[in-house]
Design brief:
The chain is of the alpha/beta class. Helices cover 53% and strands 7% of the residues. It is elongated, with a radius of gyration of 23 Å.
Length: 342
Amino acid sequence: MLSEVQGQQHAVDALNSALGRHQVHHAWLFHGPDGVGKELAAIGFAQALVCLEKPWVGCGKCAACTRVAKRNHPDVTWVMPEAEQVERGLSGRSDFTNTPSRDIRIEQVRQLQERLSFRALEAPHKVVLFVTAHAMNAPAQNALLKTLEEPPRDTVLVLISSAPDKLLPTIRSRCSKASFGPLPLDFIAGKVKAAAKKGMDDVLARQIAAMAAGSLARALALDPKALEQRKETIEAFEKLRADDASGWIALAEVMGEDRGSAEAAIDVLQIWFRDVALAQVGAPGLVNSDLSELATQAVTRVSPARLQRRAGLLEEAKNAITQRNGSTRLQLERMFVEMFTA
């Protein structure tokens, strides 16, 4: 049910408004960071559209709502890459002739279009949930356009994406939008603390929440050992000097070992720069409270303007790595060169 989605009131209100008017657009784009409730909202939205007990709301308890949650309702179709099906335990590798694809392929879209040509079996609507919609390759996106331009009657398509820019502009323009933002740090910290099997203090919970960058799923999956890696990354960065290019290259090599490591290291430094900015004005609330002395030392080495410039370079590197598939090591080396020479 949509009422189960927390921390995304703006998006939930928009969806409830459309449902309340009984005027649901045939295509929606749920966009925002990973792990912030987009898929949970899509499930609640689908329940509202197929529930016979509470039409346009969803009861969350009837057979229809239960089957939607379990992903086996006959009128709710899930579309995702084969590799993701395997990772979620929905399929086995032996179910596919070739290596499971990480793309949503044109064959999947054509199978969907054939299925949508038939009437709904039980519900008043047919619903399609595209998980990781931006994984559609170009042929698949072009094939989907036909369905978006001439949607079957009583059909609602929901595209769930953390990288909507990878979708064709013509696809985005045909969708109503529901925007999901990063979840509040205090909200995530509370959930992390509640989920801890053993007692967890508030400082540790906030550090984990901060490292998750607004994603509850990432916070709950975070290995506490990553906190020690966080400390090592920050200390290694603070040892860099403008006259030691070999140090920049060495750290870029360590941070850029793979895409996941690079993204995690950038997230750590983004939080660190925020802490240093707070230390510059004497404000409380450092996430890395165990490194408060180091933050005070950093204040003496970097001006507010240069710190802001570095924060911008971090964001540019992150975008290059995540959105444009840039070389991790090359992007990090370039970032450090601009940080220490510009």
